[in-house]
Amino acid sequence: MRWLFFALSVWGTIHPMSYFIAWFQANTWDIMAMVDAWHANAASSGLVWDLTIAAVALTIWVIGETVQTRHWVRLIAIPATFGIGVSCGLPLYIFIRMGQTDATRT
User: Fold this and answer.
1) Could you list the residue ranges that cross the membrane (predicted)?
2) Four-residue CA torsion sign, 48, 49, 54, 55
3) Which end of the chain is least crowded, N or C, by CB within 10 Å?
């Protein structure tokens, strides 16, 4: 099961990035133009806010558990979430967490 989450984090990196790169190549490499495109209509703005709130919730969870457990490698999920997306950061965090949980059982 753990490796399924790793595969999801890889997919969550590659698949969305392929769309972002294609958009940048067609529209210039201007990040603010992409942010404007994200808010082109109410549906896309709703999706942006949905993902933003999920990213903040994940960040709070990561920080809270990391402080408790002192498994500092888990913090890598935060830049993965904000630099790539929730589709990478969440499964990556679960992958790391499951590996550390398995290690404490043995």
Assistant:
1) 42-63, 75-96
2) positive
3) C
Q: What is the pLDDT of residues 19-71, one digit of tens each?
A: 999 999 999 889 999 999 999 999 999 999 999 999 999 999 999 999 999 99
Q: Is 17 exposed, middle or buried (0-12, 13-18, 19+ CB in 10 A)?
A: middle
Which sequence spans correspond to the domains of the chain? 2-101
Structure tokens at 31: 């990040």
Q: Tokens in use for 60?
A: 């709070």
Among residues 47, 66, 44, the alpha carbon closest in space to that of 55 is found at 47
The tokens for 35 are: 């942010």
Does the CA dihedral 58-95-65-78 come out positive or negative? negative
